[in-house]
Amino acid sequence: MEKESFEDHEVAALLNRHFVCIKVDREERPDVDHLYMAFCQALTGAGGWPLTIIMTPEKKPFFAGTYFPKTERYGRPGLMELSEQVGTLWKNGEDKLRESAEKIVSAVHSGRTKTNKPTTQTGTLASDVSLQNVKGSPSETFQTWANQIIKQAYDTLAHSFDARYGGFGQAPKFPTPHNLTFLLRYAEDHPQDKALQMVHKTLDGMSLGGIYDHIGYGFARYSTDEMWLIPHFEKMLYDNALLALAYIESYQVEHRPEDAQKAKEIFTYVLRDMTSPEGGFFSAEDADAEGVEGKFHVWTPQEVEAVLGKKTATKYCAVYDISAKGNFEGKNNPNLLLGALSKIAQDNSQTQDEVLSSLEGARQSLFAAREQRIHPHKDDKILTAWNGLMIAALAKGAQVLGENSYLEAADKAAEFILTHLVQNDGRLLARYREGDAAYPGYLDDYAFFIWGLLELYSASGKPLYLKTALHLQGELERLFTDEEGGGYFLTGSDAEELIFRPKESYDGALPSGNSITALNLLRLARLTGAEHWEKKAEQQLLAFRPVLEEHPSGYTAFLQALQFALHPSQELILAGSLENSALPEMRQIFFSEFRPYSSLLYQEGNLPEMIPWTKDYPIDPSHVTAYLCQNFTCQRPVRQIEEFKTLLKKF
User: Fold this and answer.
1) Which has the closest alpha carbon to 31: 369, 480, 374?
2) Does 632 score more than 90 pLDDT?
3) What is the pLDDT of residues 300-312, one digit of tens each?
4) pLDDT tens per residue, range 285-297
5) Of the residues 74, 99, 115, which one is the last residue of a structural domain?
6) 461: Cβ–Cβ under 8 A, 6 or more apart, which residues?
7) Is residue 497 part of a domain?
8) Has residue 202 been placed in a domain?
9) Is residue 130 part of a domain?
């Protein structure tokens, strides 16, 4: 639509004759996108992008739609005809259109008010579900309700699971990594169910499929087919951050080498292609190159042979499904789903990994050749929210995979945000590009960045990260709290005033800011022991009961906060200098297993300034002392690595 309409001079002249035209980047202004998408769904029963809204000068919409060709085609009205018709209607019947707009706004606002009606009373939901009877112990009624919601979500995912190819539902298939991280937690409590198999099948299917870039690494946005074979070739920063987290957590559960390898490859792609010189992470790479979808990524056998020579090319093409027939518009998107990997391995008495390793040099040669092609456009916006996700992923990678370069990259990105995307008054901003920082940060910016800071603190022990996370959470409470309806608005109280303040709880391609905030609050409550964070977490968990009950599987990121709340408080306190060589070894041992409900604190001397109770854990300059605590009861302190390992087995 951009190419055939908005960049067309004839269309532009007609639009400018009748309208004041505003083109919105929905990544820079998610508030505008959320608001008017709600109108589109109310008016048409569906949504999607591109989103087309026609509204009064007061921003009240009276027409909504998605894609419009330049002129009428296949029964779909054209933008030219539509513009003329609406222009005439406005000229001859402005009053009627304004009246229609008022009715639409009233109806949508009424519907949203009902959805967001208050459900909390000083932290308890009506009278039947209270989160806690005593500090740290969920009540039986809360446990019953939460477990029912979690089970319903699992059952829905299990029902829609594609046992043949992995993933959920039919084409197009989206990665939706928070479904997988929810299932990993579910599998911890229900090992007899098939949650873990669903996760592995999906991660493996995506890894083998063409949704993954086997030459340059990184995942595309979604697959157009059920097999994960042909993607929409656009690569998004947030998908790769969340998928890296899913592969890392899967690796923690069963230590499958392929999970660790995939996470490392994602980071290779991001640090190579999506990182600015200053350390921030770019947003996306387009699907098109030279105006053609996928042109940068696809190959013919002749092109492969020209790079590799006949012998190696024959093997590479056989393994990666590159043929004269092609699998994408006469060319080939490399994949491991349909090639002859298994047969070649068997014929040569090799494992499949050995075959792939033997082709690593070929991959590097093809990558070098592909680099000479015209690249897709890179969206070099640096978004605070998406950077927060990548910081969290890299910090988790440093924790689990022991790669210090990931910690350095996460640290540099956090420093970039704190330097370039924070105003003098402390207000977080949403977008940076070419020296310009703009737009007051949204809920997602605060929530995702706080998540990243908490993971950075867990990976490094630097008190600055915990201190900053606590400060930003306080600002989030001040700016975004919905005092009447519970939860948090998408926009701050200081943001541009729209018709009404949008509020999002649904976990779509991205988890919602409300979901991540629920988990952040629980983590802060466990880390600090502060009652006010515990109370905020309780209020957040109970505020969304109606929507959770209506469609549990649509809120799998939020459900991970419920899962966290259901489990006993578990803390590891490492008391000692951050420079002590024993500390990283203990940390590595701790993170080698999947511990989604555990918290790590570093008593390095400064922590009691933020968390006074940690002064009771003294520092010995020559040792690191580990304290393992559960439900506010600590085991005997240990200093020796073997003792630490033994104690962890009981944790």
Assistant:
1) 480
2) no
3) 999 999 999 999 9
4) 999 999 999 999 9
5) 115
6) 574, 578, 583, 602, 604
7) no
8) no
9) no
